[in-house]
């Protein structure tokens, strides 16, 4: 039995349901952020972040900084691109627009390579764009949470290394790290950024990044200092290295309780082969997608190879909008999210299926949600005379 107060099951694409142990670890007594107990917790957490990214390269650098996933964009934009340099932003939904806006805030010249809604830029288009001009970085949204579109990070990185080897490959993994395969070293990635509250199942409030030695060298070779103080790598890298070496260190106070929660969730995730976790998410995703098809509904991501495994974006039947369906889901104890992609937000809903809702099948979250979806759609159609 869960120790949490009864509540509807949160099945949005983050924040997600918490494991009891993760939540309980936040009620830790007060500690100094430079005392040996906390330094050990933080140091171990950073080491587990390496495992989360399947990285064994000691020269790669994990960072855990207070802030949300968005802070990861600022870290990239402030440290890895300089004014007037080119960034190629692969667009598979809403989040690419925002990442491009963040890059431009720091003076980068962001070019978006767009695909129709529910699709991703083709490999040919990416190769062609890379040949047109030199790009300092390319950004890929691994799973665009507004459309449920999955990108093929491994293939795109192979193209970059062949056509424009110096371009830094930056992955927005906010909705993918922990449920979609990522092999940081093997795929030769430069930055993967994520947040605590999505697929890794920790409360919101931590920005988590992994940097390659190439990314760190690029930062060190800057001609101008970063135009951000809080997100400057010069300030954070030594702190992270000290914590991992169990030395107290201070730049800005860490969120001590959240670090405890992250330590707990990463201990759970890394205690089993991470491939099992990816496979469990794929299986659950197949089940959700089959149920959606059985209801006669379509997904925004229409090609199987483009479909994320931790969420599904579902077109509503013609004539229905999210407010016709979401209250019916809530009445049945589940919470989905409305659409987010601004052009079509009123026409679809999003179902997040990740974390404990998948790894603890005894909870029955997915069966409950599928049944609720079926009933809520039927009720809404009836109410509208459809
Ligand atoms: C949620 C999300 C973000 C933003 O993260 P916040 O924690 O809300 O700041 C960025 N990119 C993607 C793909 C996301 O899903």
TrEMBL record:
<keyword id="KW-0808">Transferase</keyword>
<dbReference type="InterPro" id="IPR000192">
    <property type="entry name" value="Aminotrans_V_dom"/>
</dbReference>
<comment type="similarity">
    <text>Belongs to the class-V pyridoxal-phosphate-dependent aminotransferase family.</text>
</comment>
<dbReference type="InterPro" id="IPR015421">
    <property type="entry name" value="PyrdxlP-dep_Trfase_major"/>
</dbReference>
<dbReference type="InterPro" id="IPR020578">
    <property type="entry name" value="Aminotrans_V_PyrdxlP_BS"/>
</dbReference>
<dbReference type="InterPro" id="IPR015424">
    <property type="entry name" value="PyrdxlP-dep_Trfase"/>
</dbReference>
<dbReference type="GO" id="GO:0016740">
    <property type="term" value="F:transferase activity"/>
</dbReference>
<keyword id="KW-0663">Pyridoxal phosphate</keyword>
<dbReference type="Pfam" id="PF00266">
    <property type="entry name" value="Aminotran_5"/>
</dbReference>
<feature type="domain" description="Aminotransferase class V">
    <location>
        <begin position="30"/>
        <end position="341"/>
    </location>
</feature>
<protein>
    <recommendedName>
        <fullName>alanine--glyoxylate transaminase</fullName>
        <ecNumber>2.6.1.44</ecNumber>
    </recommendedName>
</protein>
<dbReference type="InterPro" id="IPR024169">
    <property type="entry name" value="SP_NH2Trfase/AEP_transaminase"/>
</dbReference>
<dbReference type="InterPro" id="IPR015422">
    <property type="entry name" value="PyrdxlP-dep_Trfase_small"/>
</dbReference>
<keyword id="KW-0032">Aminotransferase</keyword>
